[in-house]
Design brief:
This protein has 10 helices and 35 strands. By secondary structure, it is mainly β. It has 5 domains: 2-103, no CATH class; 112-206, Immunoglobulins (Immunoglobulin-like); 215-306, Immunoglobulin-like, CATH 2.60.40.10; 315-402, Immunoglobulins (Immunoglobulin-like, Sandwich); 422-517, Immunoglobulins (Immunoglobulin-like, Sandwich). The strands form 8 sheets. Strands 3, 4, 6, 7, 8 and 9 form a 6-stranded antiparallel sheet that branches. Strands 20, 21, 23, 24, 25 and 26 form a 6-stranded antiparallel sheet that branches. A 5-stranded mixed sheet has the order 28-35-34-30-31, with no helix packed on it. A hairpin with a 3-residue loop joins strand 14 and strand 15. It is elongated.
Amino acid sequence: MTATSQAPDYGQEEPASEVPKVPTEPSGEGAASEPTGEEQAPMTTPEAPAPAASQAPDHGPEEPASEVPKVPTEPSGEGAASEPTGEEQAPMATPEAPAPEATTPAPRSEDVPSAPLKLTVEDVSDSSVTVSWEPPETLGSQGLQGYVLELRKEGASEWVPVNARPMMVTQQTVRNLAPGDKFFLRVAAVNPAGAGPPATLDQPIHIREIIEAPRIRVPRHLRQTYIRQVGEMVNLQIPFQGNPKPQVSWTHNGNALDSKRVSVRTGDQDSILFIRSAQRSDSGCYELSVRLETLEARAAINILVIEKPNPPSSIRLVDVWGCNVALEWTPPQDTGNTELLGYTVQKADKKTEQWFTVLERYHPTTCTVSDLIVGNSYSFRVFSENLCGLSDSPAVTKELAHIRKTEIVAKLKGFVERDFSEAPSFTQPLADHTTTSGYSTQLSCSVRASPKPKIIWMKNNMNIQGDPKYRTFSEQGVYTLEIRKPSPFDSGVYTCKAVNMLGEASVDCRLEVKGEGWRRVSP
């Protein structure tokens, strides 16, 4: 009877290895209910183990004892306690061993709760998984203590509890997982009678590393052409994103980088391109590629390495009249790997040999220098200019321009005055011009006519005389139109028309006004 009464306690201890704290309460109740029926059974049980241990080696009947270990190892001590009452009782323990298997399911099916419902995976990240479920249909006769979530890795046979004690929640997150883990989950409801049947996921959960698509963030100052001078350092830091760490590569004009001139250092979140001393050959398009499996991001950065331009190839005096001199020169052979901002024209009197600037950032290759002093001789020189500055040396005129005094001619009797009447003709036409918004600019041309012509200025064939935005003036046959603080709306075709009684002539040019900052964007 003692073996029979203790058997249900062992049957309830098997799930206790998977769900902690479940067997403690039922085993205590089973032990408390049995002594009421037979109070002497537990009294004989503690006295029996001592002689059983001493008599086992002396007596021959060891065969019944060999059948006892078939019962689970932990209760074997209690089973041994019932045997010492008599050697004839050993075979009695053998038929009673399977009794717990027959009697255990009956109370559990009635007392323990049923399996939780709708076990579902809510979220899976690269280090955790969240599952939820609904309460079971039946909670058992003794209520509900909580739920126990268990985990079993693929290929393993043992279920490991996630929480040591039952928790009254219907959603739980398993954390600290590693990418590549593959496992099953199950959850069981628990009450004082024990753990009910578990609800198990049909498919294993696979923890994968989350892939973040590569992305390049080009700094604002590198979204336009990046200009450096010859000899300066180039240090470009380009941030990027991607998980896991993507593969990063650079190309220069579609070809691999020259490792002797360019060095690249790539970290987890950025890539740095470094050139210690830039040369003009380093100019071009540098493309950054960030690749992650089949995903790829690209960014192109244009670098322009420039230097000072050469001076104009040649310069000569075209004409000298009155107090005016006309000059002409040819563009430089090397502009310094960028476009010219214009030319600077200077003059020097032979007496003082001091140079004074006449025109700055002047774009045409011909000009007229006025207001020269009568009786002096002048030299002229022209510099080329780009973003790096003026050329190191200028182009200088070989001959001097002599501004002679007007001789007094005596009028004799019978002298017939010559008719110098002449229809208007332009000796120096208007030239196309480009300027920056907000900076006043001038358009000039020279006219030869007798009598003095009437000058009409037009924009897009519309007369602009009297418009306060424009100012006109003339000196020694050179007519100038000044446009005050132009804006892009002032771009267009400007025409200078000269009219006298003998005829008329006109010249035109195109003016382009760009917004501020256009020079920095120039390729």
